Amino acid sequence: MRRFPAEWEQHQGLLLCFPNNGNDWPGKYGAIQWAFIEFIKKVAHVETVFLIVADKNLQEKVSEMLQMANVSLDKISFIIHKTNRSWMRDSGPIIIKNCSKREAVNFNFNGWAKYRNFQLDKHVPSKVANHLNIPLTQATFKGKPVILEGGAIDVNGKGTLLTSEECLLHPSIQVRNENFTKEDYEAVFKEYLGITNVIWLRDGIIGDDTHGHIDDLCRFVNENTIITVVETDQTNPNYNALQDNLLRLENAVLEDGKKPRIVTLPMPKTVIFDDLIIPASYANFVILNTLVLVPTFNDANDRTALNIIAHCFPDREVIGISAIDLIWGFGTLHCLSQQIPE
Predict the structure, then answer these.
(1) Hey, what CATH topology would domain 2-341 get?
(2) Across residues 225-242, what is the average pLDDT?
(3) Is 312 among the catalytic positions?
């Protein structure tokens, strides 16, 4: 029987992809590379980094940068593969447990049903599965490939999954699977992830290039506790959607029929760059074996968010990582990474 382990369960390592496409961060590519080195350094303190690099030349350059930053290359497992982008949460495989063995599931990444240049990213799941020496399964439903990004879902490892209607069910914007219903998605979640209970939120945050990914909205922090972002400024365009999501969570139940504990997390002040609203969210943290890394935005709420998340993870160190450059690519720490369960 398949089961998608919760993110806080033990990892073999974390999958990352070193940026090789400066178009994702126009005008900031130089800063992004060093921001990424700092991200890798923090991860490598506690677990192996499975790092995709475009070619041997980039591997050599990244190795030199890591050594300058005092990162042991023994903690880096390089995978050579050219990609279109670096968002491993979405183009990478989802590693699940099938009975006592691991299995990689390929959910057929298609550029968030928005971008055409994803042909290189389509091969990431097979490259990673081969590197890890685990079998790869293509996700299908009624004979057709199923498209689902890892950022669209979050699980508690016990059978409950969080997702949003805006991302998966909108009839005309970034449609991943045409004519799919809630029941269709829930059948897919059950078959490939072992999910028996789904909590559907409504809309994502303004500026989200993925059109409603859950990992900018709310996350499980343990098997019965959900942390969710809220906006207190009633004039903010995120206010109504986030209040509606909070109400839905308060009325939701877990796989055992009990209500989840809800913890609220503030939003940073609206981040605008080049006249665009950027989807900055503290919910885009990544959980590691003994550590939680939280994106920060040079905002007064950074400290508040770090303290709230630290209370949720008393057995882990909680560290903020400046994401003010990373967020120009419309995502931060969680979007860039995918855990590899032990």
Answers:
(1) L-arginine/glycine Amidinotransferase; Chain A (3.75.10)
(2) 96
(3) no
